[in-house]
Design a protein that fits this description.
single chain, alpha/beta, 4-stranded parallel sheet, binds magnesium ion
Length: 324
């Protein structure tokens, strides 16, 4: 299969992406979180093609992306008021709502579950396709199973060239980490995957405490402990340990440090990446940094631990998994 490289700014390329999707093909599309591997969620063969391209086990459910909250009732039933409140507050945006699936929705999309994950994404690339095709688009992150999510079209091509029909280039993802997933399918509302929208933002909008994830057994593939991994081993270390490691100067290692780190030696410098200070900028560049380091055939990536505050919850979660 030849993967078409399409430009999200070129109307005729966008038309191509539309017709591929309407015809049951699979297209990697930009969202504000990470690139998604999209297909018509109501077409079983198209959904199967997503699982095949990613090499993803069929019991790992896909998120269905829709053009607006008005579409919720097409895909879900028994929708609680809290879902509407969260949708009104955060959509379009990096929030996925788990709801009871409507009876007609194929269990292929939901990985055999009775619930469905729904999200209205904010990036004009995918949002435009949702509006013009009128489809619901099933779209997991556009990476092979367990690997790092892509935040640029080039990273998608790097891993999936020849395995998918097309990539629509919409530039770098502005957020860079996967959406927050909130389970509203049972009485207790829970966060199943931490993400750009924090538990306290959710609690504030709902006017009640939302339990944070810590441990749960629900089948969220992002909940598999060795998800989101570079191929190069990654270890999280304190600043003190980092200083010692850089001094040791192993040529096989890369060092990723936080802003304000000054204890470089000259040789270490070329193998040191300094992350931006703000959480937003850090998250946006995290996967790109890991993708780049992963292509250097190093023995190990030493990564300085980020702060342990609620704001950094999603960054810590993804780094924990990357280091598993
Ligand atoms: O930001 C995002 O959420 C990106 C972009 C493309 O929208 N998508 C994404 O998809 O991260 P994926 O498949 O890589 O991760 C979605 C997670 C998986 O861990 C999946 O198991 C979980 O959502 N999920 C989806 N539907 C579910 C369901 N019905 N019950 C439990 N978990 C579900
Ligand atoms: Mg994923």
């Amino acid at each position: 299969m030849i993967t078409q490289k399409l430009d999200g700014k070129d109307p005729s390329d966008v038309n191509r992406a539309e017709s591929i999707l309407s015809g049951g093909g699979i297209v990697a599309v930009p969202t504000e979180t990470v690139y998604g591997l999209a297909a018509d969620a109501s077409n079983n063969a198209a959904v199967e093609a997503i699982f095949a391209a990613k090499n993803r086990p069929v019991d790992h459910p896909l998120i269905v992306h829709v053009s607006s909250a008005d579409e919720l009732s097409k895909w879900a039933m028994d929708i609680p008021d809290e879902a509407k409140t969260l949708a009104a507050a955060f959509w379009p945006g990096p929030l996925t709502l788990l709801l009871k699936k409507a009876p007609h929705v194929s269990k292929l999309v939901t990985g055999g579950l009775e619930t469905i994950g729904l999200r209205v994404p904010a990036h004009p690339g995918i949002l435009g396709l949702l509006q013009s095709t009128g489809l619901g688009l099933a779209a997991p992150s556009a990476n092979p199973y367990k690997q790092l999510s892509p935040t640029s079209a080039a990273q998608v091509i790097d891993k999936l060239d020849g395995k998918i029909d097309a990539v629509l280039d919409g530039g770098d993802c502005s957020i860079g980490l996967e959406s927050t997933i909130v389970d509203l399918s049972s009485a207790e509302i829970r966060v199943l995957r931490v993400g750009p929208i924090s538990p306290s933002e959710l609690s504030r909008v709902l006017g009640k405490a939302i339990s944070a994830p810590l441990n749960h057994s629900v089948s969220v593939s992002g909940n598999v402990e060795d998800h989101y991994q570079p191929r190069t081993p990654l270890r999280l270390v304190s600043r003190q340990e980092m200083v010692r490691l850089i001094a040791e100067n192993s040529s096989e290692a890369a060092f990723v440090v936080r802003d304000g780190f000054t204890e470089f030696n000259e040789e270490g410098l070329s193998r040191t990446v300094v992350m931006p200070p703000s959480k937003q900028a850090f998250a946006k560049t995290l996967y790109r940094t890991l993708h780049e380091l992963d292509n250097r055939s190093l023995a190990i990536i030493w990564f300085e631990k980020p702060p342990h505050t609620e704001e950094w919850l999603d960054v810590n979660d993804r780094l924990q998994k990357a280091s598993h």
